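Go through this one:
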Amino acid sequence: MAEIPASAQALLGTDAVAHVWTRNPDGSPQVSVVWVIVRDDEILFGTDGASVKARNLTNDPQVILSIEDTERNERGFQRHLVVRGTATVERRIPAKLIDQLCLKYVGLANHPLRLRESPTAVTVRVTVDRLSGVGPWVAEPVGSGR
């Protein structure tokens, strides 16, 4: 497990959504958008356990997240963070996590989403294997580098 450098944590702390790439049983890619939060060098998100991404991650825990920054680098390229990692699917999602995600992304602690918490909801924990993309996180030592 690699540590998440401060520059990457700063981007992950914004309201930028993450595009999550998983692998379907036939090997084709599946992508969806999720709200993320960082805890102890892991990236967490919630989803319904019956979703395609949850089923895919249960079968193959390799995952890629892509997060676009609002800034451009000195050469004019859009900054973005690409996280390659390994996911663990936990069979519940705490109300506290839902509250934190709702507060971060829509500004409401007790968002109506919390009232509809699914009994099949799961928490996905992503341990970082490698970071890449365009931004200061590429220059900082992490995992195996670029």
Remarks:
- Residues 141-146 have pLDDT under 50 and may be disordered.
- Residues 95-106 form the longest helix (12 residues).
- The radius of gyration is 15 Å.
- The chain has one domain: 6-137.
